[in-house]
Amino acid sequence: MNTLLHVKFLKTMYRLVVNNLVAIVVFAATAGVVARTSPEEVQARAREIRPVHCLLALLLAAAVAKLRRVGRPKDVYLVEYGCFRPKPWFRAPFATCLEHAHLMPYLVDEESVSFAIRLLERSGLGEETCVPDAYHYMPPDRSLSASRDETELVIFSAVDEVFARTSVKAEEIDVLIVNCSIFTPTPVFADMVVNRYKLRPDVQNVNLSGMGCSAGLVSVGLAKNLLQTARPGTHVLIVSTEILSSQYYVGTERAMLLPNCLFRMGAAAMILSNSPERARYRLTRLVRTVTAARDADYRCVFQEEDDKGNTGIRLSKDLAATAGHALKSNIAAFGPLVLPASEQLLVALSFLKRKLLLLRGRAKVRLYRPDFRTAFEHICIHAGGRGVIDEVQHGLGLSDEDVEASRMTLHRFGNTSSSSVLYELAYIEAKGAMKKGDRIWMISFGAGFDCNSVAWECVKPPADADGPWVDTIHRYPVQLPEIVNK
Fold first, then answer.
1. Dihedral sign for Cα atoms in the order 251, 255, 256, 262
2. Reduced to 3 states, what is the DSSP secondary structure of residue 193?
3. What would the DSSP string read from start to end of 332-354?
4. Where do the DSSP E strands lie in 370-477?
5. pLDDT for the residue 104
6. What pLDDT was estimated at residue 317?
7. What confidence score (pLDDT) does residue 67 get?
8. pLDDT tens for residues 371-394?
9. Separation CA 421–CA 442 (nearest Å)
């Protein structure tokens, strides 16, 4: 125990010294000069300074500060967000899934049913995840009408929620971005929102499709680029969802049955601005990595037909490993932007050690794995599945507490695609864990293959815990069952 405390103390002192090295050097140099200077000399030099010199120094400092502000991109803020909260009658407990599967023997054979149930039991999903009305019919209603009904329910509920939680009005929205991967009707979702909320005729609207679960943070990147060139006070409304009704796979290909088991209904809306007024979070960093040049990554999440002509999404068995590879590439660009100097120095030293040992013919040395908990108080990993969360947790060396928001979101809401990271943010807030100045890292993965990292800083914690967790937060966290290999 004493050894552990000693090591912890040394780590703390190391980080304190390295991260504040410039201030320590300046203080030491100043102290040295003062120590060698008598009080009489200090007073004499102070009398030599003319008022005009002080004025010039102040003007120069103000000019430098002004030029720095002008040259720096505008800050982007998250004003508010809201999530769709499904009603209890949309629940799809395992028993219901099993019963429905047996009621469709001409679509799914007994072996496929057993596989799907085993997958559900090992998925990390709980008994309260929800699916749209269309999934409660036998056979599922995959019509355009059912998809539109689901769209209006989840999108309008999320947008209503975000407007209810902030004083921003619909007429203040200057840009609208809506993302949904597979279902894209005409008119598109963006026009649907404009029509429902009677947004201004000059509103700029964009509809993103086919980008998978990473589309929500891709939309944040697009909004950031627009806001940094827009007039002050511009507001962007982002809506992220995945519409399931028309996408139910009715074949027997196991890799294409996975989305039926993992994806659940959900949506989130957020309002971003380039004005700090009414803001709750400040966007600090955003890095997007695309690995589509690799054929395996490109086909990792792939929409196609099976040998019987049934359309579905095929998820590769290497999905978790692909996510890990994409995350490594993303971290290589993201890490230097967010990690403190103490962690970057350790990475640089381990890299140098590895190079020197390789030159001497020694065995390959593992690089130092930086501790991202020194840069962030909260981490929101896309709740894509138990395997994806496990891969990221292991790769980053995170504790169970660090990934609690991701696992509990997967358990309560399932994989809600691009909106999942906002359900996780809502979990952290509902637990009362968010404080002013806290830093948040959101990680998302999507078809392509994409990996996105977005860093936020809390400006103002929530005034209340109202949100998608309002009825269930007192029951979380829950203990997840252990996976037993059969």
1. positive
2. helix
3. HHHHHHHS-HHHHHHHHHHHHHH
4. 378-381, 439-446, 450-458
5. 72
6. 86
7. 66
8. 999 999 999 999 998 989 999 999
9. 7
Evaluated on CA atoms 481, 411, 301, 305, the torsion sign reads: positive
Structure tokens at 470: 């309002």
Residues counted in the chain: 486
Amino acid at 116: A
**The predicted structure's pLDDT at residue 7:** 54
Residues 324, 34: Cα–Cα separation, whole Å:
53
Residues contacting residue 368 through CB under 8 Å, at least 6 positions apart: 346, 347, 349, 350
What is the pLDDT at residue 154? Answer: 97
Q: Does residue 437 contact residue 377 with C-beta atoms inside 8 Å?
A: no
Indicate the pairing of strand 281-290 with strand 235-241: unpaired
Q: Which two tokens stand for residue 230?
A: 């827009």
Give pLDDT, residue 1. 55
Sign of CA dihedral 230, 270, 466, 433: negative
Question: CA 7, CA 141: separation in Å to the nearest integer?
Answer: 60
In the chain, which residues have pLDDT < 70? 1-50, 52-54, 64-72, 105-109, 358-365, 483-486
Enter the tokens of residue 90: 């949309």
Among residues 317, 195, 310, the alpha carbon closest in space to that of 247 is found at 310
CA 346 to each of CA 99, 350, 353, 362, 431: distance values in angstroms, whole numbers, following the listed order = 55, 6, 10, 20, 34
CA-to-CA dists, residue 242 to 124, 154, 201, 419, angstroms:
20, 9, 27, 8
Residues 239, 349: Cα–Cα separation, whole Å: 43
Amino acid (one-letter) located at 54: C
- Strand-pairing partners, residue 273, are 77, 235
- Ordered by start, the domain boundaries in the chain are 1-36, 41-72, 76-339+375-475
What are the beta bridge partners of residue 207?
Answer: 178
What sign does the CA torsion over 476, 481, 482, 485 have?
negative
Q: Give helix then strand counts, H and E, for the chain.
A: 16, 11
CATH entry, 76-339+375-475, from 2.40.10.330, 3.90.1150.10, 3.40.50.1100, 3.40.47.10: 3.40.47.10
Choose among 18, 68, 70, 81: nearest CA to 454. Answer: 81
How would you list the strands of the sheet with 439-446, edge to edge?
Answer: 204-208, 175-179, 235-241, 267-273, 76-83, 281-290, 450-458, 439-446, 378-381
State the pLDDT at residue 78.
Answer: 98
List pLDDT tens digits, range 114-155: 777 788 888 889 999 999 999 998 888 999 999 999 999 999
Which residues, including other chains, have CB under 8 Å from residue 81's CB and lie 6 or more apart? 162, 165, 268, 269, 270, 271, 422, 425, 426
Burial 61-71 (b: 16+ CB within 10 A, else e): eeeeeeeeeee
